[in-house]
Amino acid sequence: MTGLMLEGILLTIITAATPLLFASIGELVTERSGVLNLGVEGMMAMGAVIGFAVAHSTGNIALGVVGAILAGMAMAALFGVVTLIFVANQVASGLALTLFGLGLSGLIGDAFVGVPGAGLARVSIPGLSDLPVVGLLFRLDPLTYLAVAITIAVSWFLFRMRGGLVLRAVGDSHVSAHALGYSVIRVRFMAVLFGGACSGLAGAYLSLVYTPQWTQAMTAGRGWIALALVVFGTWLPGRVAIGALLFGGVSILQLHAQALGVGVPSQFLSALPYLTTVIVLVIISRNRALVRANTPAALGQSFVPDR
Amino acid sequence: MVKARGKQAMKKILATATAIVALAVGIGSANAADKLKACWMYVGPHNDGGYSEGHDVGRQMVQKELGDKVETSYVESIAEGPDAERALERLARSGCEIIFSTSFGFMDPTIKVAAKFPKVKFEHATGFKTAPNVGTYNARFYEGRYIAGQIAAKQSKSGVAGYIVSFPIPEVVMGINSFMLGAQSINPDFKLKIVWVNSWFDPAKEADAAKALFDQGADIITQHTDSPAPLQIAQERGLHGFGQAHNMYDFAPKAQYTAIIDTWGPYYVKRVNAVLDGTWKAEQIWDGLKDGILHMADYTNLPDDVVASAKDTQAKIEAGTLHPFKGPIFKQDGTEVIGEGKTLDDGTLLSMNWYVKGIDDKLPQ
């Protein structure tokens, strides 16, 4: 295996992990506030289509990314209104949001099917990108840098800042947080919006960077993987990032294993990313204390303030 | 008492529901009396830019050419399996008189549903099972793949092509073998790397597969999946490939050599017309390049001599003087499938589950 090939593989793995990282970090924040939003796939699809549509119409990819963020937030706002203000069931509303997003994105995107998009170029950071081995990490596309920055920022916010403490308090016991005078609904709404923005980014990454094109259902289940990764990472940003890389890594490596012709049935290789995720999930769940410490205790529970 | 009331209420609701359904069916059949209702079922989105879109272009042609004599409709993104059965049944109940089920995996559901609706006519693409009211139709895509294989062998510097595939069904295996036989006719030592993505349509995964194949030394890519993503990767890397089912030139104007374009329209018009004038009967149709059911996209990004030889091969296939599966053909282990001078018959082709010699990959069973 040559160095160039290794570099190619690493680049592909990072590209595969980035949309998963965006979506799962957003969902992590949402879930830390106690809200389970199963609509990630739908929000991603909307981000993908709006991102592509705006970028294509204006010729400006940055505007497309902004459009995708807003589209994800609009979808999340809808979910927030339904579940937080009208106190609808979160699981059912989230599933509905996915179906709605997939359908609506198909409708909006009809005019953009079969239209090639201009991809986002990679940005080399001068000086650092020429370093051996690690130089690769400084020759990525801007959105990947953004994903890493968001992950670090979220981690800092959740565990080093007062706002993060409030958010976690709301997610662990909305009754206590309410009694202390925090607006549970407002905190949750903001967390839901943040989740939507990140899902929108994940979608934009697919339609603007990964495969610069729009096709219906191009998210192909990645929203669901992101949801699983949040649990996989026991609601900790660093672990979620590792999970995204692990899942991306195994799915890319299995393709390489096939191309090399290792003689293992391809169906088994294709199942490997899922299998690995499930196994690691089981291993992590064995450490009960760790899981209990980080699982938002009020996850999925509706909050109705009693006046 | 409460229970009895509940039952009565239930009966009332049922009666109302039945009345509404009866009304709806009545309206449906009144409409159907003036127009023939022709329906399509797709495995992907109708505008996937690939296989399903090819069928939808055909449907639109039927609507355009037969105008107010027909009413066409489609259902899209139907998963192969139990979902397909439900969708077909819904179509049959909704008054469709002819239903085109356009994916290989719809085969058993089509046969099953057709037995329940003997008056509805079914046509199943790329399969091999028939019934009195189920015909099959297919295009000899392998003819195009043979030409692609020859081009690949002439153009490749590394002598290695990458092949992205969906599921190990005979149609796909036939395509791989034909591509390889075409390549071997130019370069007997040509190598093929094969990656299964277990999906007909997942742009990101197809792109990943293309990257993996390029990283491992392939410099030409071909695919039996439906999105233009692999070609986009080829363009990004300054390498080349072939479009699938649809002309993908716009997605990769510097990368596409040619594309195998499905051209179902004329066939659909012919078959719907047959229903209209009452001459339809279940047939097994397998047309090729010469019948116009598939076309080769313009040969681009190629030197003149390669274009000329590709056109020459195409002309020979159309004239019937060249058959991609002409013997001698050997399996991977060296056993002879067919000897010198003979060609494989359609039955063998349609049930193909072995690789030809020279492919070092294990076929998933």
From TrEMBL, chain B:
Residues 37-316 form the ABC transporter substrate-binding protein PnrA-like domain. The keyword Signal applies. Keywords: Signal. Residues 1-32 form the signal peptide. This is Basic membrane protein A.
